[in-house]
Amino acid sequence: MARPLIELKGIGKSYGKLRVIDGIDLDIPRHSVVSLIGASGSGKSTLLRCLNGLEDIQQGQIRFDGEVISGLGIDHVALRRRIGMVFQSYNLFPHMSVLDNCIVAPVTTHSCSRTEAEARALTMLERVGMRDKAKAFPDQLSGGQQQRVAIARTMIMQPEALLLDEITSALDPELVMEVLDLVRDLAMQGMTMLLTTHEMNFAREISDKVCFLHAGRILEEGPPEQVFGSPREAATRSFLRRVTAAGRL
Ligand SMILES: Nc1ncnc2c1ncn2[C@@H]1O[C@H](COP(=O)(O)OP(=O)(O)OP(=O)(O)O)[C@@H](O)[C@H]1O
């Protein structure tokens, strides 16, 4: 069997006495989409942040394409080129045009020349339907458009995997679909993705595997039809009842 692109083994993470990640094992095969679901505070974002080195882990090991990427002596700049991350708040630089936002990382990390970065950025902006806004500034864009630019900006670094942390949570409902459509396209093109979402129907539709996190552990994982259709654990059922009542499933 092919080696998973991302392998988490026995991951543990605490903030002081608060145990936030409590022994997580997870394999993410290349070209697959894995969704983390669970109540607020269950550790979903923290796990993503541990993966691209924004947080240290205290136990366990993370491998990316077989290479250990947790612990001391890791080049996080190089790592973040390989593992892109998109956040709930788009984090675009307000004083820079869309195009400049997209080229700032490749140019400052010298991963390519300005000319090449601009060419790549325009191609990527075309792909996310934002090429005509290349000269616009972030405050001239809707939230959905800003998030599409943020995704383009990450994709320009040609990452091998994408971490998406609640990328539609800050959006008005009518803008959610345009961002989810883009993520769906990336999945169809074979991008490996680990995402956290409160959009259960989206997780159900797009994921190869869904993991239900509860108090820092993966309490249940499986194909979406199993986790959503016939959850084994009482806590999963209770969570799904709550999201159904809230109209999210
Ligand atoms: N920097 C920090 N310092 C202290 N505690 C933190 C920090 N970041 C997160 N936590 C705590 O860790 C726990 C897990 O937080 P995390 O953001 O990973 O949850 P989550 O499942 O992503 O929640 P949500 O769905 O609300 O985004 C929470 O109890 C949170 O308060």
TrEMBL record:
Membrane topology: Peripheral membrane protein
Family annotation (SUPFAM superfamilies): P-loop containing nucleoside triphosphate hydrolases
Gene3D superfamilies from the UniProt entry: P-loop containing nucleotide triphosphate hydrolases
Principal localisation: membrane
Subcellular location: Cell membrane
GO CC terms, sorted: plasma membrane
Name recorded for this polypeptide: ATP-binding cassette domain-containing protein
Source organism (scientific name): Rhizobium lusitanum
